[in-house]
Write a structure and sequence with these properties.
Length: 140
């Protein structure tokens, strides 16, 4: 969920700029191929090597990242606990009994496929864990 916090900070910083940011044509072209129906997009630089598009599609807030030459890197969106694959949900319950799932993101990456990241909480203890679709832990 660190990405979500960074995304919120990025939005605040970029929205304070008076000049709209426009990515290179290669980025715009790839974005339009992937999301042809999206009309309103907030663009910003994720870092020195990436552009990030933030938009809403079918009621879902989504961010998509691209290299400067238009290569897609990842797409991330918040999902509900009910949308977690059963193996992921089961692994969380198995490894973290008594912990509550607070927030869940699904990230599609060119490199690693689908990753499900969950923020979990047990009293004052908080943790972020990530899993492949089959329930294998990838980050702890």
């Amino acid at each position: 969920m660190k990405k979500v916090i960074l995304m919120i900070v990025s939005i605040a910083v970029f929205s304070s700029c008076t000049q709209a940011m426009t990515p290179p044509d290669a980025v715009l072209k790839t974005f339009k191929k992937m999301f042809p129906t999206v009309a309103k997009v907030n663009w910003g630089k994720e870092n020195a090597k990436e552009w990030e598009a933030e938009f809403t599609l079918n009621g879902n807030k989504i961010s998509a990242n691209y290299t400067f030459d238009g290569i897609w890197i990842e797409t991330e969106q918040e999902i509900t606990v009910k949308e977690l694959p059963v193996p992921v949900y089961n692994e969380i319950q198995k490894h973290y009994p008594g912990w509550k799932i607070v927030e869940v993101d699904k990230t599609e990456t060119a490199k690693n496929g689908s990753i499900y990241e969950a923020d979990i909480k047990n009293g004052r203890d908080k943790k972020s864990v990530a899993f492949k679709e089959d329930g294998k832990i990838v980050i702890e």
